[in-house]
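Provenance and format

Records in this collection were gathered into a single text stream. Each protein contributes a sequence line and a token line. The two records reproduced below are adjacent in the stream.
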Amino acid sequence: MTPAELTDTDIAALAQDLRARGEPFAIATVIRTAGATAAKPGAKALLDAHGVILQGWIGGGCVRGALVKATKRAMEEQQPQLISLHPQDVLDQKGVAAGDDVDGMRFARNGCPSKGSIDIFVETVLPLPELVIFGTSPVAVALAGLAETFHWDISRPVPDNTEPTPLPAAGRMIVVATQGREDLVSLRSALAIPNVFIAFVGSRRKFASLAEKLAAEGISEAALARVHAPAGLAIHAVTPDEIALSIIAQLTSERRRERRGETPSDD
């Protein structure tokens, strides 16, 4: 729990509900004020991903615009934000303009007649990344255990021979660790989900053989090219635990790459 959740039962209850539904949210806390301000240090509010206050109170309309921008920026960058609102004369005295970012603090103009100053810390609470693991092999079991240590939300679907497993794409990565049992149907289910990172536990030769069969069924070359085989970074892994470690390292690398807006790896 965040400090806000520990001190505000209403925020805690709503936060728990949002977590259960897998919805991102933010908690804003007033950490400093000067002059006349409606909110005082310690005031808190819970906001949705668009900056709309769902619970709590952090001041009137004078801070809402800056708070919305800070929340959206925090969601996009997945980093906390520190905003400092001042009347125009104070901004001029400090030699900064609204929108300036100085040492991690984003300045904004407070246009309220009260002309107070207020600093607000905005922290995000994001859903855990979801790792979908197909298979019951030793590698699949080891991967599920290790992934929980790295705060992944684990899903273990059963592949369907008739229809693809209905899994949404957002925030998910897939590892097919069937290792000889239901390889084809698991790959079909994984490939039915667009724009998702897919890794296959097995050699390039084995996947090439399976890819030929899938291509004969009408799956496109572009779709098959989305599968990374063999799964994991090249660390000369041998045991299931070592292979699981190499896969977690690969998934972490891809997640960080996506956050930085880089092109997905073709390794």
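Adjacent record:
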Amino acid sequence: MSHNILILPGDGIGPEIIDEAVKVLNALKAEGSLDMELQFAKLGGSAYDAEGSPYPESTQKLAKAADAILLGAVGGPQYDKLDRPLRPERGLLAIRTDLELFANLRPAILYEELANASSLKPEIVANLDLMIVRELTGGIYFGQPRGIEVSEDGERFGYNTLVYKESEIERIGRVAFDIAMKRGKRLCSVDKANVLEATELWREVMERIGKEYPEVELSHLYVDNAAMQLVLKPKQFDVMVTTNMFGDILSDQASMLTGSIGMLPSASMNASKQGLYEPSHGSAPDIAGQSIANPLATILSAAMMLRYSLEQGELADRIEAAVKQVLANGLRTADIYEEGTRKVSTTEMGDAVVAALAR
């Protein structure tokens, strides 16, 4: 069966890192291991420049028809003064909503070769293997009402609404419990139930679902304590599940335990296992066009795409092994470079992964 894959290069370093991931996918196709067809479209700032919308109708049609989507990154300072609905980030939020991509999977895995790149002591983070499951289409980022207004006394005020339906909490909870069953059977739910009623409901629903998964050890942490524990003893966690905003913050924090956010992939999936796969980092416009960006997170996102949406787990294993081999060979982009290793460009790193894949 041929897989229909939509490629969204995006903005900033997006096109550069996407090129390297596509190079890896094409290598698998060329050897006959992967039957796929690639289509390309625009999202974010590039879409606004071309069509006046960060998520144009042309992209919407292709996205809905795709088996899976691979995204580079969106955003850039040139778009900061646009009306909020036209900014690149709104395109990303829109495609998540349009495709009902409610489950964001953010692994934080420390490669042995990069232990010294972490800001924490190697013994604290060695062999870290953590999965953060973030609810992606609800919560304060989407809640209504929201806005900036002027009060009766003339002072401006901004407001956002944190809302979660029980059904939204239940579906992300089941995803997290299912993932925990396939890993270490430990799930930590992160909330702020002591002060936020929406997350008080979150905790109640997680407790109820947990009764259906007696093999999974369920624990709870307030988000402030969870942030502290991630730095203090990160290896105590197996799977974490949390709200949209808390997950946004904690997953970026967890990424730096591994040495570089440039190493971390992510997946955003719906109930049909259609997924949007992207590196956890942003568009890094300050280094765009210099061929110094790290493409490994995007290449590993392609591996996640093969595993979770296209049911090609063996090919995903091969890509991940190729990345590990390249790191073992001492190749590093600027973000993970250290003395004694060899600094390479974005394209050289992609070429090295393709070469390791062939071996």
